Amino acid sequence: MLPLPIKDNLRRAMRSRLGAITNEEVARMSALILNRLRSDEWLPAHTTVALFGGIKGEPDLLPLIPWLLERQSTPVFFGFKGGLLIPQRIENSEQLERGIFDVWIPVAEAPVVPCEQLDVILTPGLAFGRDGMRLGRGRGHYDRLLGLSEMHARRIGVCWEFQHVEAVPTEPHDVPMHAVVTERDTR
């Protein structure tokens, strides 16, 4: 386990790098990530897939929504309730709105999906270690979700190549990703 000052420094460095990415870079690199994800290896047909998005500098995953629906898969975004992430089914990007932290959240009337029905969770983070460990933004929302006993979904970290680092600071409650996908590689 790396000491907390290293965690804070890594968060600060990644936030700075993400804040400097232009919209054009996000669009270009997101297209590369989407090309990697659009396969049975990562997102098989007939599955329930949790997506994320909305924070400046993060990959744009919204174009996956129609692709998932064409494959009879169920796209899910997370709403917030009592500090917990609540999976909710959507059928198009019009069913999303800006929520807390400026992330995309489903409109209130979007149906809730039980956590045990999630097959794949595309997971954001500030950094991912080569061992699959994730450094989040520090509020613990994904840590609580991924740590649920009923959670058996495949966890795929999605980030830019510069966010995939040798190691990230971990704590006992952290849950590793099964894989990490960047614009350059999949591991």
Structural class: alpha/beta
CATH architecture: 3-Layer(aba) Sandwich
- Count the domains: 1
Shape: globular
- At the fourth CATH level, what is the homologous superfamily? NagB/RpiA/CoA transferase-like
User: Helical element count?
Assistant: 4
The chain-level mean pLDDT equals 93
Question: Helical residue percent?
Answer: 10-25%
Order of secondary-structure elements: HHEHEEEEEEEHEEE
Low-confidence parts:
none
Q: Say what the CATH topology is.
A: Rossmann fold
Strand fraction band?
15-25%
Looking across the biggest beta sheet, what order are the strands in? 3-2-1-6-9-11
Tell how many strands the DSSP assignment holds. Answer: 11
CATH class: Alpha Beta
Main β-sheet: number of strands, strand sense, barrel status?
Answer: 6 strands, mixed
Q: How much is the radius of gyration in Å?
A: 15 Å
Distance between the terminal alpha carbons, to the nearest Å?
22 Å
Description:
This protein is of the alpha/beta class and 187 residues long. It has one domain (4-181): 3-Layer(aba) Sandwich (Rossmann fold), CATH 3.40.50. It has four helices and eleven strands, in the order H-H-E-H-E-E-E-E-E-E-E-H-E-E-E. It has helices spanning 4-19, 23-37, 64-70, 141-146; strands at 48-50, 74-81, 84-89, 96-98, 104-106, 120-123, 127-129, 134-135, 154-158, 164-165, 179-181. The strands form three sheets. Strands 3-2-1-6-9-11 form a six-stranded mixed β-sheet. The longest helix is centred in the N-terminal third of the chain and has 16 residues, at 4-19.
